[in-house]
Structure formats: structure tokens, C-alpha cells
UniProtKB/TrEMBL annotation:
Protein name: Class I SAM-dependent methyltransferase
Gene3D superfamilies for the chain: Vaccinia Virus protein VP39 (3.40.50.150)
Gene Ontology biological-process entries: antibiotic biosynthetic process; methylation
Organism: Streptomyces tuirus
GO molecular function: methyltransferase activity
CDD domains: AdoMet_MTases (cd02440)
UniProt keyword annotations, A-Z: Methyltransferase, Transferase
Xref: InterPro entries: SAM-dependent_MTases_sf
């Protein structure tokens, strides 16, 4: 069993702990950024659509936004997080990072003010994902893009682990330690989705699902990474789900 260095009092205390990982793997971030770049198109030129506003909600340390920015020239990427520790780190990587929450007072943006939202490895941490998607839908313009990524409960190795009676990777039963599953880090996952469940949930929240792709997981053991990359060809088996949806 691996334990976390500090016993958290609650979820907020947990995520303000600098020892809790807040960055996602670069391969996942690159794949998601390429999906968004294709969706938005160029910001300038005779066929460009003008500069767009992209919100990276739950930006963590800013790694995903910093990875996406070079692929989105001319577009404005703004990081959003409620963790002050995460924002301090994000501001070293991206020019704009502001504090905001998906619940309570809501995001500090007007209705229909954003063209796209990056929602990377966040939904699995939420107590109320319904309210979160409602708030994202509020700030997106009609037809705006939602780029959501989350671990796949039905990843190829999780299917084998469940058959063996082992707790699936990504799932957690405690904020204080690892119990009954592979892995070394406690990251605070509360919910996990299969591809079918994610599609249905997003569609029920007022979005039209455009595309679902797979991405590798940076925590897979080195010897198994070629298999993990191959699994990306079938999102049903991939480690990470990348979903592109548009506000209906």
C-alpha cells in the first residue's frame, strides 16, 4: 500500500497539497490540442475565423494549456482553476490564469463568452459533474467546442484486472492511500466513465458528441506502452478518452 504524505481534511485540502499531481501526460495533451486546432481552424488569413477564446478549466499547473498554445496561434488560451497552488504554477507557463469554480458562484465569465473549453482530466474528480457541464454550457457560445478527456474505466488492462478480482487502475477508495490496485499516487478520482457512459452523459447535458478518440496513459509501465499506444486505435480499449462535443 502507498499512502499520501498528508492526511487531507476534505477535498479542497487534498487538492491544495503541492504533493498531489496536477499535470497530465504530454501525449494526451498533444492529441487533445490537435483535435481542438482542427475544430477551431486558423485564427488569421483569408480562410481564418478570427481569434477565439479558449478556456482551460481545471488547468492545474498549466501544462495542457502550454502544450496546446503553439498549436492554436492567434487564439487566446486562459487557464482556470480554484487551487491557488495550481494557479501559481500555471502562471509560470501561460500568460493568463484566473481563479474560478464550476460550482458555487460559477466561472468568472459572461454567458456565451467562450468559443471552446478544454476540460482535461477534471470530470473524474468532481462531486457534481452535472452542475459542471451546466456551467460549461453557460459560458460556451452556441456551437462552441468542448474538449473533454478522462480515464477509461474499460481500458484494456482494467478489463483483465477486474477478471482477476483486482481494483481497476484510476479508481480510488481513499484519499489517504492506495488499496487493492496497481499504482503509487493518490490523485482523488471520484468517478470513472466507460466510452458509452461518457457519450450518453455529455449528450444528456446539452451537447452533441462529434468524435471520441483514445490516448495513452503516461503511467503505464514502459514494457506495456507499445500495447497502450496500439489500443488508442479503439477508444473502447484506450487508457484515456478524448471526447469532442459541441454546445447544442
Amino acid at each position: 500500500m502507498t499512502t499520501s504524505p498528508v492526511k487531507p481534511r476534505d477535498l479542497r485540502d487534498f487538492y491544495e497539497n503541492p504533493a498531489v499531481p496536477v499535470a497530465s501526460g504530454t501525449p494526451r495533451s498533444l492529441r487533445q490540442a490537435r483535435m481542438l486546432a482542427r475544430a477551431l481552424g486558423p485564427a488569421t488569413g483569408s480562410t481564418g475565423n478570427g481569434a477565439r477564446t479558449v478556456l482551460d478549466i481545471g488547468c492545474g499547473d498549466g501544462t495542457a494549456a502550454a502544450t496546446a498554445a503553439p498549436l492554436l496561434p492567434g487564439h487566446r488560451v486562459i487557464g482556470v482553476d480554484w487551487s491557488q497552488d495550481a494557479l501559481r504554477r500555471a502562471r509560470t507557463r501561460i500568460p493568463y490564469a484566473v481563479r474560478g469554480e464550476l460550482t458555487g458562484g460559477g466561472l468568472p465569465f459572461a454567458a456565451e463568452s467562450a468559443d471552446a473549453v478544454l476540460f482535461s482530466e477534471v470530470i473524474e474528480h468532481l462531486v457534481d459533474p452535472d452542475a459542471a457541464l451546466d456551467e460549461i454550457r453557460r459560458v460556451l457560445r452556441p456551437g462552441g467546442h468542448l474538449m473533454l478527456s478522462t480515464p477509461n474505466l474499460a481500458a484494456w488492462y482494467n478489463r483483465a484486472l477486474l477478471l482477476a478480482g483486482v481494483q481497476p487502475v484510476f479508481s480510488e477508495v481513499s484519499l489517504r492511500g492506495i488499496h487493492g490496485r496497481p499504482g503509487k499516487e493518490v490523485v482523488g478520482h471520484l468517478r470513472l466513465y466507460t466510452p458509452r457512459a461518457l457519450r450518453e452523459f455529455v449528450a444528456a447535458s446539452g451537447f452533441t458528441v462529434v468524435r471520441l478518440e483514445g490516448a495513452p496513459f503516461h503511467g503505464v509501465p514502459r514494457l506495456l506502452r507499445p500495447l497502450d499506444r496500439l489500443a488508442c486505435a479503439r477508444p473502447q480499449l484506450a487508457s484515456i478518452l478524448l471526447l469532442h462535443a459541441r454546445r447544442t
